[in-house]
Amino acid sequence: MNILLNDTTIEIPDDYCLKDLLKLKGYRRAAVIINDKHILIREYEKVILKNNDAVKIVRISGGG
Amino acid sequence: MSLFPDAKILDIDLTSGQVIKKTVPGNIFRLYPGGSALGLYLILQDMPAKVDPLAPENMLVFSVAPFTGLNISGLSRMAVTTKSPLTGTIGDSQGGGFFPVYLKGNGYDAVVFRGKSPKPVYVYVNEDQVEIRDASKMWGKVTGDAEALLRENLGDDKVEIAQIGPAGENMVSYASIINHCNRANGRNGTGAVMGSKNLKALVVKKIINTKPFDPEAFKPLAKSVKQKLEENECVAGLGEFGTDGDLEGFSDDGFLPTRNWNTGYFPEGAKAITGTTMSETVLKSRDTCYACAVRCKRVVEIPGLVDPLYGGPEYETCGTFGSYCCINDLPTICRANQLCNMFGIDTISCGATIAFAMECYEKGLIDTKDTGGLNLSFGNTEIIEPLIRMIARREGIGDLLADGSKKAAFKIGGGADELSISVKGQELPAHMPQYKPAVGLIYAVNPFGADHQSSEHDTFLIMPEDSIERKRLAQIGTTAEYDNPFVIDDDKVRFAFDSQCYFSVLDTLCLCQFVWGPSWELYGPDDMIELCKSGLGWETSLFELMRVGERRINMMRFFNAREGFTKEEDILPERLFKPLLDGPSEGVQLDKEEFYKARNLYYSFAGWDMESGNPTESTLRKLSLGWLLDK
Q: How many angstroms separate the most distant Cα atoms in chain A?
């Protein structure tokens, strides 16, 4: 199935959860918005992605 | 009697050896309640304009906040304020660890240094006992060795040490002050000012005695950190993967400064130097500052190459020594981080200045005759260690690079100034204004040069209205929503200014900006007010706190105005207005006309003169700073 990830269409397997997607993309420090809903970290494993979901990743940047 | 505590100041004249203990009354302290606001208040009381930053007349102030050391995450920071030898502006640098807690534990809100000792010394503070002691044996030593000698000299292990390394002794313009061998008051060359005073270290006895004003009300605030951490993906990621956790993602998006900012794309190296790779390869442990649950600090170890004593690299360090220089070798970056902590050098300015030198070399502006035979091609890992050592000792080309890229460019000539990616002489951190124009605006107008920790970043404005980040930002007046971060319009300018005032409060109250802040951090504006109330008994409001932040910024601008700075120095490097060369961000650039229009709007929001960019008399009076008009 296809999802829209930060305005780019990508193909992922069915029954893919959000945590799998973040792992696949190597995103480790980011906030996630799916179809305009902010997903909390404790929900990452429960959220199963659906065809045509619009997923927005907001990267957190800080210094040091 | 004031409702606000008095500030206790230790004032040390290193020329005469005189030590004075004095107080700032609570009603004054409330206007400048710690950090660099207190530092600025003390400096502007006494220091004339146009002082040479490395002259005895320059003042150097270490300062904390009234509640530094409370048992809650993110309350262990310290400011160092002085006139910067790197920028010629006010200098401000922030650092964390354990030292700030012990400084406050000894009973002091600030330590002021004036003058110059005739020989190398260190200052030892054990509550009322303050001694200026000989540091001849420690002079010339790297931080790890000097720490051991200082403890041996005192015959006491229960001390914490903030010190300079050889770079500070040699007055490298971006020398830092290192505590715990791995925490830095890194920016603006505060370590060089210490070196100019022959002051090797400030040593404090390990004492903790800060207690909350209202323990029952304070306890739930402190305890809530566990739940907040579980619910906050951003801060949880910080703990797990460090500040470098998403470096690879920045490259994927095309906004990781690479090849001295010619591109934002580093596909050949980003994965090798990102935080996840660090965690999987060289990470030995996660470290923490006092009482902090986040544990974002990295400790890395590579036998024979990198000693865990010196911590591990942050995102900025991986950016400047990594992608800026096209270095895709994590061990080289870890080694560079160690050398900077050993010699006491700011990793941002050092890595960025080396990247500048690499581009000068590739463009033929300098050659092997200038470099002592070193091949400064981008990506050459072999030259990083020798260059850092040469900079710290001011040897060969290291002497040229030791004053930063802007001054080096002036000496090199031939258009090298266009290759110095700096503002007011301070090199840009690894966040691209092409992607975050509000951050870029603050880079330009910030009184002490480009800084990424002086305002909130644009990216949080693309989150949904009901997210905690947006709800908190609404509390400081930011309600606009964006589809992407690239826009710079009226609302963004207001966001930049208001969030800058908020971050200025954080740097006044010495709060860690990963734990306390106006959007994604663990504790938001309501929590900060509760902290002031239960922690200190300070019945305050967001309005008063934002004024505190605005006051600090205006004091800095006033300081700079006395030195001759105007809006002519509030400019970004020309490179940012030219299209990026390749990758996903190919062709992206800042619009110059739009950007400088935004800068003018910023001045009007700040209440500054449109011609000079400096605070007006009425703005200073509004902020209770009318006394400055006589200075």
A: 39
